[in-house]
Amino acid sequence: MRHPDEFCGGSRLVQCTGWIGKGLCYNVAAMLYHFETAEELSKLKVEFIRTDLDVALTFAQIALQTDKREKAIRNQRNARKGYDAVLQFMGAASLTRFEQENITKSLALLKSALLSLGESF
Asked: 114 vs 41, 68, 102, 117, 121, CA distance in Å?
């Protein structure tokens, strides 16, 4: 199916690399230009941070609970990537005080788990 110009016309700053349908592009950067308001984009960033943090915490728990060395190493590595990504994206998001507090608490839990797994900061 052909990519419709009304979703990512030539006036966009980022060129789409493909079209999924219903206005969704493969290129995440191009997708960001489709949001109607900065508020909508900000909410999406916060949701992304929360989701990434939840996934990283899950990876850390799996790494802590498994008896299989390879599985522990793989999940520890994924948890650390999530931790680093959350730190990076927090600077780009407009967080409310409540969101900041909750994310900071979860980050502390993740960091503690990572320290238990042997990570250094």
From this structure: 30, 17, 18, 5, 9
